[in-house]
Amino acid sequence: MPSQQVYIDHLLLQFSQEQFETLPRWILDNFTVIDGGVHTGGLSRNKLIIFRDGTYLELYNWITKPEDWRERLPGDFALTTLNPITAEASQERIANALASDPGDGGVGVTYSRPRKAAAKTPKGSMCAGRLLSQGIPRRTRRPGTNSIREGAQMRRFSAMISLRHPSGATGIERIDVVVPRGGLSRYSDVYASIVGAAPEERDGAIEFRLSAPGVHSFYGSLRVQEAKTAEDEQFLRQKGIGISSLALRSETGQPISFSIAEFLQ
């Protein structure tokens, strides 16, 4: 299988109105946070924690939460392509991969044609891009990511990548995804088709090692493992398949980890 076709883009964390307007102390103590804007339609807004390697954390808040809010969100995390790969080319590549070996492991994953996504910044300018949304059959567990972003929007943040954080964080080091027992092979196939590269097996899990979108000498990993503990099983019942933990790269060389479960959909 060829080398990676997508890069880790960002992680989405949901905040209540109170948390969003008065951010938790651990965020303010560790990160430089910038105002993002209001998404098209005015239903939601965000703040951003942007890292040197081009990855970022999106702090997301519903201004008005619609009944179909789960379908409107881009998933726990998003991946991105880089120029000159277009959204159309990305959709075609993934569709072909899901329809052939290794396929989608029988999960039934599909990706939509590209659609526009936009937000208005606090200064009134519009930031627009395009993304592919993931489709999944009813009663099927959705993989932790359900969107692929087009590289053209990458990087409205280019002038901000020089931001420094009190914690010394420089990017996303590792995203851990937990899947049901017996499901590792199925979801390994799904992610291999989406990423465009084969994973490495390590300690009973699989890992996709991905270079960062902004600094290719920086690497992060997408780690997928089966539920092993009662806590993992409870997480799956409450949240479904998704990120179980996050580690950030640091200038000190020691990963920065913190609990994110309460901020996941």
TrEMBL record:
InterPro entries tied to this protein: Glyas_Bleomycin-R_OHBP_Dase, Glyoxalase-like_dom
Gene3D superfamilies on file: 2,3-Dihydroxybiphenyl 1,2-Dioxygenase, domain 1 (3.10.180.10)
Domain Glyoxalase-like: 8-181
A Pfam family that the UniProt record links to this protein: Glyoxalase_3
Protein name listed in UniProt: Glyoxalase-like domain-containing protein
